[in-house]
Amino acid sequence: MALSGLFLVVFLTQHFLINVTSVFSEDIFNKLSHFMGTNPLVQFVLQPILIFGVIFHFVMGFYLEILNAKSRKNNYSKFSGGSNSSWISRNMIFSGGVILVFLVIHFIDFWIPEMNYKYVEVLPEDPNRYFEELVHKFESPLKTAIYSFSFIFLALHLLHGFSSSFKTVGVDSKYYNLIQKGTFLFSVIIPAGFVFIAIFHNLTS
Amino acid sequence: MKLYLKIWRQTNVDSNGSFQNYEIDEITPDMSFLEMMDVLNEKLILEGVDPVAFDHDCREGICGSCSLFINGRAHGPDTGITTCQLHMRKFQDGDSIVIEPFRASSFPVIKDLVVDRTSFDRIQHAGGYISINTSGNTQDANTIPIRKEDADNAFDAATCIGCGACVATCKNASAMLFVSAKVSQFSYLPQGQVEAKDRVLNMVKQMDEEGFGNCTNTGACEVECPKGISIKNIARMNKEFLKAKL
Ligand code: HEM
Ligand code: FES
Asked: Chain B: residue nearest A78 by CA?
C-alpha cells in the first residue's frame, strides 16, 4: 500500500510538472508530451508499470478495507471516531473511490483516444497536436468542474496517505515533523496546481 | 444525578447479546464511573436481576482490567485515562449513557461487558520477554550505560498496561500500538538486542494470527491510550520488522 502509494506520488509529481508547462508555453508542453507519447521506454516499460501500480494500489486498498472490517465483525452501536482521529484518515477508501471514478473518466477522456490514435487507427504523428487536445478538453465547464472536484479528494487522500506511507515503511521520530509539513505542502500545492491548470485553460480557451 | 443507561447484556460467548435500558438515581458527581456501575448492580441484585458483569481490579489506573466503550469512546469521554479514572462529573443530570464492551473479533465478549483479551497474552508469549536468567544474580543496573533518551523511551513504552483501548478505538481493530510498545520497551535497550529480530517477527506473526486489523495510522489509539504511548512506536516497529525481514 505504502510503496505503491509513494510510487503514485512520484508519478503525480512528474505528471504535474509536464502539465504545468502548458500554462506558459505551448511549445514546451507539446515537446514533452510528444516525447512521453512516443518514447518506447516510456510507452512500453514505464506505462505498464504505472498501470500495474494503480491497479495494485486500489485492489490492495479494497482488500485492506475488507480485511480490517473482518477484524470487528460486531460493530459498535455508537462510535465517536471524530473525537480522536481525522475524518480523512478514517475514510481513505472513500476519497480513494472518488479518485478511482475520476481515473475512469480521465482514461476515457485522454488515454483511450490516445491509444486509439497511435495504435489502433495509426494516424500520422503530429508533434503539435497535444496542446490543442488538452485545451479542447477543458472548454467544457462541466468537465473542468468534475476535474477540479476530484482533485479536492486527491488532496484529502494525500493529506493522510503521504505521511502515513512514511510511517508504514518505518521512517520514525527524527523526521516526523518534516514529513508532516512536507505532506501538507505537497497535498495542497500539487492538487491545487492541477485545478489551476484546468481552470486556466477553461478561461483562456 | 439521574441517568439513563443503555447497557449491552450478553449471557455468554455463544449467545447474541442486546441492549437493556436502566434508570439510575442518586449518583453523585464525585463517584467514579465504576462506582456508578456498583450502585446499579446493588440495585439489580436487590431486584433479583443478574448484575452487569464488567472487568475491574486495581481501580487506580494501573492494572488495565477495566475496559468499557462509553458513549462511543474507549474509556469514556476523556483522553489519557482508564474507565476507573473516569468520574461522574463528566456527565450531566439526565444524560443518556451507552455502555458497550470493547469490540474486536480478537476480543470475544465473554459476558455482558467482559471481553476475553488473552490474545494479548499470546502475543506477549510469542516474544515479549528477554531470556536472560536474572534470578539470584541480578547485575547492578549501572554496569551497562544507557543513553538517557533511550532509557526514557523504553520506559515510556513499558508503561503500557495492556488494557486494549487502542484496539477498541481503532477503526481497524488493530493492535499495533500495544505490540509496538511491547517491542520498543526492549529494543531501545542493549539487553533487548539479542532476541530483537525474532521478537518482532514472532510477535507480529502472532498478532496477525489472532485476527487483529492493519494499522492505517489514524492516530486514534494514542489519543485514547491511558498511558499516552506514542504512535511513533508503530513506525519504529515497522522499521524493525522490515529490517528483520530483509
Ligand atoms: C485509484 C483509486 C485509489 C484508491 C481506491 C485508493 C485507496 C487507498 C486506500 C484504501 C489506502 C489505505 C488507507 C490508509 O493507509 O490509511 C490508500 C493509501 C494511500 N494512497 Fe491511495 N487510493 C487510490 C489512489 C491513489 C493515488 C492516485 C495516489 C497518489 C497519487 C494515492 C496515494 C496513496 C498513499 C501515499 C497512501 C498511503 C499508504 C500507507 O499509508 O501506507 N492513492 N489508498
Ligand atoms: S481497574 Fe485497574 S486500570 Fe482500571
From this structure: B72
Task: Identify the CATH homologous superfamily for domain B117-245.
Answer: Alpha-helical ferredoxin (1.10.1060.10)
The CATH classification of domain B3-111, taken from the options 3.10.20.30, 3.40.190.10, 2.60.40.350, 3.40.50.2300: 3.10.20.30
Q: Chains A, B: CB contacts under 8 A, how many?
A: 111
B111-169 pLDDT tens trace: 999 999 999 999 999 999 998 777 787 778 788 899 999 999 999 999 999 999 999 99
**Given an 8 Å threshold on Cβ–Cβ distance, is B100 in contact with A78?**
yes
pLDDT the model gives residue B141: 77
**CB contact A64 to B (< 8 Å):** yes
Q: Cβ of A81 under 8 Å from any chain B Cβ?
A: yes
Among the bound ligands, the one closest to the CA of A4: 1
Q: Where in chain B is the domain with CATH 1.10.1060.10?
A: 117-245
Which residue in the set B19, B216, B243 is minimally distant from A164, CB to CB?
B216
Q: What is the crossing angle of helices A92-106 and A47-70, to 10°?
A: 150
- B199-243 pLDDT, tens per residue? 999 999 999 999 999 999 999 999 999 999 999 999 999 999 999
Chain A residues closer than 8 Å to B219 by CB = 84-86, 89
Cβ–Cβ below 8 Å for B211 and A167 = no
Q: Which residues contact B242 (CB under 8 A, 6 or more apart)?
A: A169, A170
Three-state SS at B208? helix
B74-89 per-position pLDDT tens digit: 999 999 999 999 999 9
The CATH 3.10.20.30 domain(s) of chain B lie at 3-111
Expressed in angstroms and rounded, the spacing between residue A47 Cα and the centre of ligand 1 is 19
Whole-angstrom distance, CA of residue A64 vs CA of residue A69: 8
What Å distances lie between residue B159 and A108, A169, B71, B181, CA to CA?
Answer: 55, 25, 26, 8
The whole model's pTM is what?
0.93
Instruction: Tell me the pLDDT tens digit for each residue of B42-51.
Output: 999 999 999 9
Per-position DSSP letters for A156-179, written without gaps between them? HHHHHHHHHHHHHTT--GGGHHHH
Q: What is the ipTM of this complex?
A: 0.90
Q: Report yes or no: B71 at the A interface, CB cutoff 8 Å.
A: yes
**Which residues in chain B are closer than 8 Å to A83, comparing Cβ atoms?**
72-73, 77, 223
CB-CB contact of B205 with B126 (8 Å):
yes
